[in-house]
Amino acid sequence: MSRRKKVHEKNQKKKMLIVEDKAINRYVLRGIFEEEYDIAECQDGRAAIELLGESRDEVAAVLLDIVMPVCDGFAVLKYMKETSLYNVPVILISSNMNESNIHKVSAYDVVVDYIQKPFQENIVRQRVQRAIELYQKKENIKYERAE
After folding, report:
1. Where exactly are the structural domains of the chain?
2. pTM for this structure?
3. Which residues of 30-53 are buried (b: 16+ CB within 10 A; e: fewer)?
4. What is the pLDDT at residue 11?
């Protein structure tokens, strides 16, 4: 990847997908990240799957609730696994991260972290930024090796 392309990518706003059924939680997360990212919001997993199918190369990260009506977070993770969408880090957001859920998500390589509700802005920002930066570095290394 040329240096010029890397600089251009840094100056361009990437998309962050927030998948959460509660509007107040989407509002809080949007407020944390809207200056740095173009925010796309979905209130259930079905809408998230549609959006990921349409714009898979534009999404820098997914903040994903597990428990939602219509289609839950595990269905989104399954879709990402089945469609080989491994270059997008997923940070789970939940008030219900019990042993059972932690065990279930271990089968999905894209899950890099989870954040407990209620949100603490500085922790959310730091963990999400770290995950995105690590994934971008990993992708750059893969691209450079392929050249």
Report:
1. 3-146
2. 0.86
3. bebbeeebebbbbbbbbbbbebbe
4. 57
Domain spanning 3-146, CATH architecture: 3-Layer(aba) Sandwich (3.40)
Neighbours of 135 (CB within 10 A): 18
For every residue of 53-117, which 3-state class applies, written as one string? HHHCCCEEEEEEECCCCCCCHHHHHHHHHHCCCCCCCEEEEECCCCHHHHHHHCCCCCEEEEEEC
Is the link from the previous residue into 118 a cis peptide, with omega within 30 of 0?
yes
Q: What are phi and psi of 52, to 5 degrees?
A: -60, -35
- Dihedral pair phi/psi, residue 26, rounded to 5°: -65, -40
Whether residue 37 contacts residue 13, with contact meaning beta carbons closer than 8 Å, is answered with yes
Average pLDDT of span 64-69: 92
CA distance 25 to 31: 10
Closest C-alpha to 89, from 129, 124, 35: 129
Give how far the C-alpha of residue 33 lies from the chain's centroid of Cα atoms, to the nearest Å.
Answer: 12
Identity of the residue numbered 42: C
